[in-house]
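Subject: mismatched residue count in predicted assembly?

I count 593 residues in my input, but I want to confirm that the predicted structure covers every chain. Input:
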Amino acid sequence: MDALIQNTYPVKAADYTSAGRASADIKRRLKQLGVSGDVLRRVAVASYEVELNLVIHSEGGELELAVFPDRVQLVSSDVGPGIPDLSLAMKEGWSTANDEARSLGFGAGMGLPNMKRNADDFAIESEVGKGTVITMGFRLA
Amino acid sequence: MPEQTRYHSVRLDKERCRGCTNCLKHCPTEAIRVRGGRAHILDSLCIDCGECIRICDYHAKVAVTDTLEDIRRFRYTIALPAPTLYGQFRTLKKPVYVLEALKKIGFDDVFEVARGADVVTRAIRERLRDTSIPRPVISSACPAVVRLIQVRFPELLEHVIDIRQPMEVAASIARRRFCKAHDCAPEDVGCFFITPCPAKMTAIRRPIGQAKSALDGAISIMDIYGLLLPHVEAMQNDPDFVPATPYGVAWATSDGEANAVSPGSSLSVDGIPNVIRVLEEVENNKLRDLEYLEGNACIGGCVGGALVFENNYVAKAAIRRLVADMPKRHPDTDVSAAMLNKYPMKNDLPFEPNAAMRLDDNLVVAMQKMNRMNQIMDHLPGYDCGSCGSPTCKSFAEDIVRGFVASEMDCVHLMKEKIRHMAEDMVTLAQSAIDLGGKKEEHPEAANRSQK
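Triage response: the counts match. Full output below for your records.
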């Protein structure tokens, strides 16, 4: 089924001033659509984490929101650098955030585990030198 | 467009409204529209913060509160002053002077809402032991902030503390004590809050979290400041009185509540736009290590309310000085555990979400409306000038979709564009008519245009 709402947000690497704008717009849209309570809370957390991941770890990319009558889908795709060891990256507390990110309070290594915990479906594909694609699904009750 | 149907203290004085865009642009919840040459307040979005009252140069936005005449319908009356009232008198030595002055202007009794804040402080501290309430726990003391959460952050409602506001607890105590002392029925006594803001007035008439308020009304600080002043200044003897603790009095200013309730881990934020930014942080799960969050709609806390007399910074300084001079008692030891059982502390109703942001109850229809909104947005200039009567281009697009606006031509910029096109067409048309008539004379500019 085609998504009724589809929006793409470009996210720049290391652009901390704009960080959080895409997820803020996603939240606003979902509230206007009447998505509520638990689902909204989970999408809020996951979309913020995935947007920040793009800012902190990627070389730039985009976040795509798609809303279907029965689910919300978030797809984050970047142009690199790719994750060498996915199982290590999924571990809580593991982070490769640089000093700049850490000085801003990021880099606790909770990003990916948090996304996985909050999404109903979570898939991650990554290739070093090419990039990472994270797909998250949230069922609308 | 839906007009006001639910009770709101904040109203429009139609006669005075010029239909300018000041309030439109300053309403933090985008609850105002200018249509037909005057402002309209959208019922479901208005949180009664009073920002529009402050900004309107024509005094067309008013707060409806009770008058000293209104209180006469009760056999007895009790005044319950917000601690903010103390901050209105720069050189005030003790709160009791203000309490005595309230009696002088006609109240039979007084009870400090600061004392209610003492009791509520202890009740909240007990309540925080329940670790099942998601963190940060959010204060419910500012009704405008609670209504903001109901509209814009409904998923955060379970963070909001379910303990009653200080004015409510104060009124329960005051009424029961008065009835016992004077052997009268509860309905013979009118309890009136002396309020710094319209949001509290609305919270009395249309309570949040309670079926019925313990108060009977509210009188604006602005309305009685002038009557109180000479009595406060003339006060000489010190009546015997045990006042609220400095912690209760400090609730008048931002951080007072947070510091009393959870000094170790708390954050306080004032001013609606700032409150919104912090609530977004909570939404993003970034403040999960924080124990308590105090949000105030007004800058400086309640001292910044729309119905106060004194400048909020001056009042804040006055409260700080007053607090510093008070004996150092803390609600933990000053309020007995028995008090918490004797009077109702917890809300009797849950905080309900307000669906005003929703484009439609049906998800698919809401999605269609959102797509239509985005299409309209593509045509709009994005100046957010407010000339159309909606606060931003985005809200204008939303208003069209919701049916509040007839057409895109309410946008003066689109209209100008359309007129320009029509004028060009006219020139072209006129030119062809002239050509048909066999005349050779041509306006050089028109020739250029028609060649395009």
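The mean pLDDT of chain A is 87. Marking this ticket as 'not a bug'.
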